[in-house]
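> forwarded from #structure-qc
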């Protein structure tokens, strides 16, 4: 039994070596749950890793709130990466355009964060942020007497997180989608499926 375990560890190390990818410190401690069950099987990381993902995600969300309010625009590389970082810079460049109408919005909510579906090497995962008490307060800087408050209800949004080895933290890499209403009330919590193309039949279409 011990020899078999050693062989598995050696084989895993060789695979990462030949693929040229540095394994995460927790790669060999990932657990496969619902193995063999289509649409439900996924990798789960140790509790300490899950807690760090949740903590780093909430810190990134808090920083994004400050950036949206113009309080802290620097430090994006500390919280964001990949497609999400590129989109952040695109939005910031657009907001610097003097010809636009300046609308500012502050969205407040309560976060109930689920960390799910780690990649096989443990470097990526998804975060399902079930948000309650969502409210948007919008103002127009060109018309100081104009404001709008909106109750957005509850919702769930999905982000992809990636671990930055150099920074030793998880960063938001991509926004995936907003889930249908009631997703977080499901008994099985649901399993998010990634698709490169949308199905031809959507909603009530047959």
């Amino acid at each position: 039994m011990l020899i078999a375990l050693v062989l598995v560890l050696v084989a895993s190390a060789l695979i990462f070596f030949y693929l040229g990818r540095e394994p995460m410190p927790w790669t060999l401690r990932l657990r496969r749950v619902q193995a063999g069950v289509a649409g439900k099987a996924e990798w789960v990381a140790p509790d300490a890793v899950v807690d760090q993902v949740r903590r780093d995600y909430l810190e990134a969300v808090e920083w994004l709130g400050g950036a949206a309010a113009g309080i802290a625009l620097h430090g994006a590389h500390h919280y964001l990466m990949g497609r999400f970082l590129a989109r952040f810079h695109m939005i910031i460049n657009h907001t610097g355009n003097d010809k636009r109408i300046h609308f500012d919005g502050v969205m407040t909510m309560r976060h109930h964060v689920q960390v799910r579906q780690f990649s096989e090497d443990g470097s990526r995962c998804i975060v399902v942020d079930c948000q309650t008490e969502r409210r948007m307060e919008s103002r127009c800087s060109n018309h100081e007497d104009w404001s709008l408050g909106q109750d957005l209800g509850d919702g769930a949004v999905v982000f992809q997180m990636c671990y930055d080895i150099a920074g030793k933290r998880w960063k938001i890499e991509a926004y995936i989608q907003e889930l249908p209403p009631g997703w977080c009330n499901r008994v099985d919590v649901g399993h998010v499926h990634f698709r490169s193309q949308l199905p031809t039949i959507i909603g009530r279409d047959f």
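QC bot note: Residues 29-185 form a domain with the Nuclear Transport Factor 2; Chain: A, fold (CATH 3.10.450). DSSP finds four helices and six strands in the chain.
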